[in-house]
Design goal:
four-stranded antiparallel beta sheet; three-stranded antiparallel beta sheet; about 130 residues; alpha+beta; about 35% helix
């Protein structure tokens, strides 16, 4: 009788372990799906808020393309130590700045539209 009880106990333990593993796998699948959806949403949000700056590096002018859906924005160019050099409010999709007056170096572009603040750097090369 004792060997049968031992065998039953072993089978119950194995069934319990299998059930826990199966539940853990299902929870992992659900967690992975939720993570994938979250990543897709975050990537879509990021794509919506991309500030395009071209050409980069630039020699005589720079084009700044606002993200989709941004209407009115203020675009400002700073030197690397933070001094404001150029600033313009615009509702145009693409804004072009002349770089003729700027020396070679690295610059920062900041776009502000409501709560949205985007920053990008560009390099000015010689003419």
């Amino acid at each position: 009788m004792k060997p049968i009880l031992t065998l039953i106990a072993i089978l119950l333990l194995k069934m319990s372990a299998f059930a826990q593993t199966n539940i853990s796998n299902e929870e992992h699948k659900d967690s992975t799906k939720a993570s994938m959806v979250s990543n897709q949403i975050n990537q879509n949000d990021i794509r919506k808020h991309v500030l395009s700056v071209y050409p980069n590096p630039a020699s005589n002018q720079i084009n700044i393309k606002k993200p989709e859906g941004v209407k009115e924005a203020t675009i400002t160019v700073y030197n690397i130590i933070g001094k404001q050099l150029i600033s313009e409010s615009t509702n145009q999709n693409i804004t072009t700045f002349s770089l003729d007056e700027l020396p070679r170096g690295q610059y920062i572009i900041r776009l502000i539209s409501g709560d949205l603040v985007l920053t990008k750097t560009f390099l000015k090369t010689s003419q």
